[in-house]
Amino acid sequence: MKKKLFNLIDSKAKIGLAGILILLLFGTWLLGLNIKRIGFQLIIGEITSILSIRVVKRIVKKKRKITTKYSQDYAFPSSHSSSVFLLATIISYWMPILSIFLFPFSFLIAYSRIKLGVHDLIDVIGGGIYGITLGIIMIKIF
Known about the structure:
Elements: H1 2-11, H2 13-31, H3 35-60, H4 79-94, H5 99-115, H6 121-141
């Protein structure tokens, strides 16, 4: 039963992220925030995260406990964790009230990666720290 729940969480993560981005767009419109700047931070942050994590994984070469057709590369750091924490950090900077939802959602996604057996705790902690750090860098630079 638990594995089914975490498979559901993991498979619906992209839908949840899309919902968060829709809320972000609506919120920026309501609050009159600079949507171009926020969008730029999110897009450049995600591209940077995806590309740099590939490099880090090839350097560290930490094997996964299990592999699936979706997770055949190395484990550390978790790119799922990095992505959700990056988004949570940037969006929470612009709309702090959303952090109440975004960070618990991010922890749930990270935990689901552990429960599904594709990552260890250190992988998701590394990915989370990486995503938060990269989010802060994107806010400072752009």
